[in-house]
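Re: [help] complex structure
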Amino acid sequence: DAGITQSPRHKVTETGTPVTLRCHQTENHRYMYWYRQDPGHGLRLIHYSYGVKDTDKGEVSDGYSVSRSKTEDFLLTLESATSSQTSVYFCAIRVHKTANSYEQYFGPGTRLTVT
Amino acid sequence: EDQVTQSPEALRLQEGESSSLNCSYTVSGLRGLFWYRQDPGKGPEFLFTLYSAGEEKEKERLKATLTKKESFLHITAPKPEDSATYLCAVQASESGAGSYQLTFGKGTKLSVIP
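Output below.
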């Protein structure tokens, strides 16, 4: 357990509605990531953050926005949900073990269904 | 473009039957290769990071090795509780010091039959 929680854990929403997923960490790590996982695809990076108010796009960022106003929280927002955004969303943090080695730990995931 | 290919897609083993999972990669300079275990309905669980060819790491019945083109996850005398999907990911040198982005393979689903 890397001290990562995600909320909600499950959500069903309708097409066109906004949705916000929350990732919370307890250890003040600088880097946080949002991924999505779909059958037939590997985990794909949506957005990441390298500090408060510092974020950047990943491989599949279209239709998503993020915010990080506190070190411990990283929010993922779907401005207008579409059925193609039905997926399992994982948050991750990067933990440096030494100056040149690190590990990336994942949260428990949020299963989002857009109907 | 960075690519990670895992094989086989699925593997069924009898309890005690040792085998290996493969992760082949194409990246413009490898900064790190990661192995994860994922159980159904859960997030990936970190297993190992390998940084250079020739490096090996072990944890219980698992041993990860790395060459310049691929990595193997060897499972010795597996037990039913080793059943899971095993994911491989790479971080390329050109992903930028500011991101440490990982590119994942699609995983190998391992089933160990008692």
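Chain B has a mean pLDDT of 93.
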